[in-house]
Amino acid sequence: MAHRWINTLTHNDITPHRAFLNRRQVMAGLAAGAGLAGIGGAAHAADGLEPNSYEDITQYNNYYEFGTGKTDPARNAHTLTTSPWTVKIDGMVDKPGDYAMASIMEAMTIEERIYRFRCVEAWSMVIPWNGFELADLLGMAGVQSGAKYVAFETANRPDEMPGVRFPALDWPYVEGLRLDEAMHPLTIMATGIYGKPIPNQNGAPMRLVVPWKYGFKSIKSIVRITLTDQEPPTSWNKANAREYGFYSNVNPEVSHPRWSQASERMVGGGLFAKRQPTLMFNGYEEEVAALYEGMDLKANF
Amino acid sequence: MDRIRDQINATARRVPTWAVYILCLLPAPYFFYLAVTGNLGPDPVKPLEHKYGELALQLLIAGLCITPLRQHLGINLIRFRRALGLMAFAYVTFHLLVWAVLDVQTLGRVVEDIIKRPYITIGMAGFALLLPLALTSNNYAVRKLGVKWRKLHKLTYLAVFLGGVHYIWLVKGIQLEPLIYMAVILGLLALRLRGRKPSRIAA
Helix, strand, coil: what percent of chain A each, to 5? Predict the structure, then answer.
């Protein structure tokens, strides 16, 4: 099994949920009483690594199955039934089958991972996830030696997901990783945020988190995991291959046709926040650069 | 129907045009205030940018409605067309400023984006087309240009079409709202392609 990854962001980097809310109230009071001065600058630590509030993380989402607006998922996702939940693991594995979410949770050890999260739309957050390494789940199913890729699929339930009634994308949402990416200790299955069960709008009951790739690679509400020897199709690549490659590693030097990726807006910084430079592999270069040795990242974007 | 039309026309005659300017301008500071106070969500730059862009498009569309309303329904709101056009230009400018100053933030990258990203190039082209229209929206220019003024201001058709394309192009995936805007724009432009009926009310 893969070696353990040591978290460099710690609990000290998190604004406690309650403290954050208190500060919000104080700031709201200031705004109401004393005008608008100082609001823009107050929210940011100097190093820019202050994690986002629970509220930011759960109210500002891209999850097109529940609508394309940033607030649509928080408003619409309550209709998704997440319990009971079954994940089909099939393809090149020793023990294919339907795994109940409850039994997966029993078998896995949940830990906290505080990761940077970078969207292809050039905004970013810092999120304290709870979850387990994907490698552990794949280990449970027994990956066969010929397998080279892992394919993922999101639930596709028009009755519960209003967004899939409109063809914004070719549903169901599918994603994929190369096996070594999937087995990397940074790659986790998230089942919680801030120690609470992960809300539906963030991909309950179980979603992928690949912190060195753009957020859309981190597929939500997974119902199927397939081990294969072929590079699997991915939803955004199918929608627009020129703009969304299979790898989609965060790379400030490879410009997206519609968004410069050299810098990012940090969510929660307010209207006047300065853009931050984007880090290679979203700041995880040391950990993951070796996976891509010898590859032309401009061609394999 | 005639009664309703006459009532609308009578009411419209009593509305001063400055009221339309004020009414159209109010959303600008309101949404800016919401953005500053954190009421447009945790990433306020984008919603503010989008809100101004949407309002610009809506005002342009409202301006396109004036002539068909008069030609087909006899409703005469032509007094307000200049106000709608100028306010649309104002919101395109606000949209552009929020994008350049608060979103992109550096001049070099603004220029790079305009050159490199077609949906931004198209948006800028729309702005450039509206600029001479805004500059000639005063009584002096209207008198001075005469017949040429009407020809020049047909550039609106192209500008609003480019605005619609800009919107469809900038969203991720296929989204409903920009398609609805484009359908309305194309519908209003199509009304102008059909043989023109003589207006029922002398202009």
Answer: 30, 25, 50
